[in-house]
């Protein structure tokens, strides 16, 4: 539905256009996600990916409810949805930490010790007698 430009302040036209594009984008993503059954989707994913999907779904749903509250003139900051979003964000951070630990490279202790041993300078017995310290230069007056 096209809204007559005279029905709202012209300053917010760009914001409304951007909002409409965002809603269309969300609608397309939801249609795509809903086209596959949840159990079928979860079978294709590893447990960590399943957790990510569940968290993103819950966060998205609660975010949309936040927007709904705002459009109804209710301050979402004073509503329990705010605590729910924070709780979900906490779990998202935990899942991210687990994923980061999983991605972290494993230390090959044998290779590390060989690298350190070969990188350290060891004096040769034949070189111990000769000093490798440079001769001190003359001081200028």
UniProtKB/TrEMBL annotation:
GO terms for cellular component: cytoplasm; exosome (RNase complex); nucleolus. It is found in: Cytoplasm; Nucleus, Nucleolus. Residues 122-141 are annotated as: Disordered. One of its GO terms (molecular function) is DNA binding. GO terms for biological process: maturation of 5.8S rRNA; regulation of gene expression. InterPro entries: Exosome-assoc_fac/DNA_repair (IPR011082), Sas10/Utp3/C1D (IPR007146). The keyword DNA-binding applies. It holds the Pfam family Sas10_Utp3. Monomer and homodimer. This is Nuclear nucleic acid-binding protein C1D. The lineage of its organism: Eukaryota, Metazoa, Chordata, Craniata, Vertebrata.
